[in-house]
Amino acid sequence: MLSEVITGSEGGEGFVLIKDCVQCGGRGLLKSFIKAALLRNETVHVFEFEISQEEMYSGLTDGTSSSLVFHNGYTDPLNWISNEKPFDFSIQSIKSQIDQSKDKESEAKNVILVLDSLSWLLHHIPITDVCQLLQEPKRKESTVKRIIALMHSELHDQGIVGSVSHMANTVVTLSPIPEFTTVNWEVDPYAIGETVQRKKSGKVNREEECYTVQKDFSLIIHHDLHNRKQAIPKPDNTAQVDPAANLTFNLRLSEEERHAKERLSLPFTFSEKKKHSILQPRPGGGKIVYEPDAQDDFDEEDPDDDLDV
Amino acid sequence: MAIPVQSMTGISNARLNVEMNTTSFQKKSRSKLLSIPGTRPSFQNGQLLVSTGTTSLDYVIGGGLAVGTLLLIEEDVFDSYSHMLLKYFLAEGIVCSHSFLIASAGEHPDDILQGLPAPVLDDVPKDEIGKINQRRENDVSEESQDSMKIAWRYQNQPKVQTVLAASSRFGHYYDASKQMSAETFESAEYYPFYLPAEVHLKYSVSSNIHIGYIKLLRFIQGVIHKEGFDRACPQSKTRNILRIGIHSLGSVLWGDDICCKDDPLYAYSLTKFLYGLRGLLRTSLSVCMVTVPSHLIQNKAIMGRVTNLCDTVIGIKSFNGSEKDANDLYKDYHGLVCVKKIPYLNSLICELPDTRDLAFKLKRKQFTIERLHLPPDLSDTVSRLNKQDLAESSKLLRMGCGAAATGKKHLDF
Amino acid sequence: MFAELNGILNWSLDKFEKGQCVLLSESKTDGSFLIHHFLSFFLKAQCKVCFLGLVQSFSHYSTVGINMLQAREKGQLVFFEGLRNSLDMLLPESDASDAEPQPLSFLRWPSTDLRNLFDFVNSSLSQSENDMSRWASPVLLIDDLSVLLSLGVNPTAVLDFIHYCRMAVCSKQQGNMVTLVHNEDDLGDEDCDLVLHALTHQSSLILQVHGLNTGYCRDVHGQVLIKHCLDHDATLTHSLTHPLINKYTISHISYYLKFRNLIG
């Protein structure tokens, strides 16, 4: 389902939210969304807060593509460096920026808005404003057809993550591949993406897939995650092999070998003389001679008298 | 996995290993050290050390308290033993004729001064240790005739000594039952700071620090600058150490609310103060002992930050009034000591103690810290079940001390 | 520096990756040895270094590792001693606000951001023509970031500061940035968790120092986990455990290696 969402063939409308985690970042997936949109020759507005323009462009375009509009929120979002009129990344200004570039093209083309990442916005703008922006695709007159946003879910309270996810038409939640799936994949999967999609009709689709983002930002989906998961423990249960069969070493000793083994002196077994020289017992001292009395209750089974018998 | 690289054979390999293991970090020691009474250089890193007044505590924290560092004692519930440690620390200062500063918001500093324990000036403990050593030697010679068959290598091993003590003598012993005579402390340079006398009526807050903390910081700064404990401006007159003891910092009496609320209004007040204090100590010839009622601090994250900002952190848990008092395992001790942090000073590593499971007991004359061990079971009818209980409860307590395993998954080493 | 660590990272003095944001995280043990390692490494590699030492004094850092005094006199190193500078801010001489902006001004006016601290970093690392020819790429070292949180700085302000440093040092000047964060996972310090997680997303190389799961041990200090986050998605994870330095062998750290290639 993930690849359908990316190509836009199935429910491409509305707000797509990618929630990633510390173990697996979602920027690769985000870039494959952008790449797919660029291939469809759609206009993409990227609001970038976390990486530089070069990093964002690397692999996507040769930098000349006019359909990718880069809004730089990385270099100086808080106006610490330049002392120009402070530009605020408020919702109004985001909208007006999109409108401005649209006027230049002078054609009413629908645009895709990419927010990388929503976490930065949520840290600097009140959540109600952010949510209003995210409502934009639902308004009829809006030119923003689609919003794709990346969010680092650990960086926000559960409530905020919930409210934002509630706004989304499609939520892709990334989680790391559990360690026990040590199957020989052709290409190692990067993460598990759980796609939950809400249709206008009220129908909800849910699917879990393993995916890998390749160098050209195309996606490999490993469809058979569940089959694999179940298949793993089976070989261990079914095969009841004799453990002693086909060994590369010998388990039994011949008579000759046994003699050789017994002759071998093991490490840390020393001759009496050597033990003596190491310990250097001092001359003198006593010896305990014990002659049991008639009254002594000597138990054969417990000579040291330390068992509970 | 656990095979060290050195065990490989072959000359080329061996040489490679030598190269692989070299680092550019070299142990450096300061050649020129100030000689001040009551101090000695550390074997580890050449730092100037002073005694905490408790010999076994000195041993635990790596020989003593380095000048310019901050020791934090997490108070026990009734503040009886932690208060005692603070008194030993100050009394040691008097005996070594150091200057000292007492800051308190509850008990008046003069009262703390009056209640300092008297030093035991005859060297009885030293003789005792000597006797023990001698006796041990005799024991060995007597017993060695009885040869061990299997564990014969252990035959000549010395008996385990649980009392922690360094080989050389440093610091003094104190008699907790006697008070120091007035003549002893009259001659000492003493700077009291009593919060109620400094700040009147209502406590206020400036730049998110409680005014009490600001006052104290200013007071300490003033003493350090005026009385010449500053390291930066060397003076011709003889240098001395300033010992600073701060009692029950962070409690309600200081105007702080971290003990009352889970989400205090000024959660950073104490940490800011400690940062400033550490800055002062680092640039002067002073050492500081702070006690903090950590059991009252509701938000554990704050305590974590406080620990991170101090150099040495020792936790004290007393058995007084707790159910552990009744437990057989602890009948020999009065409480537990937990080493939470040891500083890394002028060195890549620190002197780590053998074990973090320590316990203390208070005898008539002295406070000693020992390794925690299970007492020998001498009863005639040994119940296996009972023993398991003891082991369980000891495990539980170790968890409390933070020294035991945190993960249940697997053993690494 | 530890030659072994360089070997694992595949770094050498004349060839190491530029433009990297390196995150060091410590938990239940001390990770400062890595700070010393990177400090010596970058000074020896003739980089222009700005060091925000917030935890220890200058003499401490200088005694352990490389001679910093020399580097400072040559103009190679800019050292900021947090402990020494904090007092002027905490105990101001006069109530009048100074005209000169101070790096630690947040101590006095708690609601302010870390812009002044960033300006300090930026101006110490921005290179003149003369510097360009003398020193290699700029490097920013921070020991440690959690101190800022303890001093009452809002985590968002810390993240903004890091954002700007990363932009100025890593992206603009193709330099490196090394940040230590102290975090105890069981204390529930939410601010610290937030900063650590956000940094994990932004860093390209992560070294996690962790105390042993099995509890305290005298001879083994802890383990180090190294994660390379290459470009965007491909995460190459090495895991290695290292028993740190025995009591007397100060100049030695040995690593016991356990490579685990999770994802190629």
UniProtKB/TrEMBL annotation, chain A:
Single GO BP term: tRNA wobble uridine modification
Sequence ranges of Acidic residues compositional bias: 293-309
Record keywords: Cytoplasm, Nucleus, tRNA processing
Keyword match Acyltransferase: no
Entry's Gene Ontology molecular function annotations: tRNA binding
PANTHER family: ELONGATOR COMPLEX PROTEIN 5 (PTHR15641)
Name by which UniProt lists this protein: Elongator complex protein 5
Species for this entry: Erpetoichthys calabaricus (Rope fish)
Organism taxonomic ancestry: Eukaryota, Metazoa, Chordata, Craniata, Vertebrata
From TrEMBL, chain B:
Gene3D superfamilies, alphabetized: P-loop containing nucleotide triphosphate hydrolases
Pathway(s) per entry: tRNA modification; 5-methoxycarbonylmethyl-2-thiouridine-tRNA biosynthesis
InterPro entries the UniProt entry points to: Elongator_complex_protein_4 (IPR008728), P-loop_NTPase (IPR027417)
GO biological process, one term: tRNA wobble uridine modification
tRNA processing in keyword set: yes
Keywords for the protein's UniProt record, in alphabetical order: Cytoplasm, Nucleus, tRNA processing
GO cellular component annotations of the record: cytoplasm; elongator holoenzyme complex; transcription elongation factor complex
Superkingdom assignment: Eukaryota
Annotated localization: Cytoplasm; Nucleus
Family, per entry: Belongs to the ELP4 family.
Protein's name according to its UniProt entry: Elongator complex protein 4
Lineage, top ranks: Eukaryota, Metazoa, Chordata, Craniata, Vertebrata
Name of the gene: ELP4
From TrEMBL, chain C:
A Pfam family reported for this protein in Swiss-Prot or TrEMBL: ELP6
Pathway: tRNA modification; 5-methoxycarbonylmethyl-2-thiouridine-tRNA biosynthesis
Domain of life of the source: Eukaryota
Gene Ontology biological process terms, A to Z: tRNA wobble uridine modification
GO CC annotation: elongator holoenzyme complex
Similarity comment: family membership: Belongs to the ELP6 family.
Name recorded for this polypeptide: Elongator complex protein 6
Protein source organism: Erpetoichthys calabaricus
Gene: ELP6
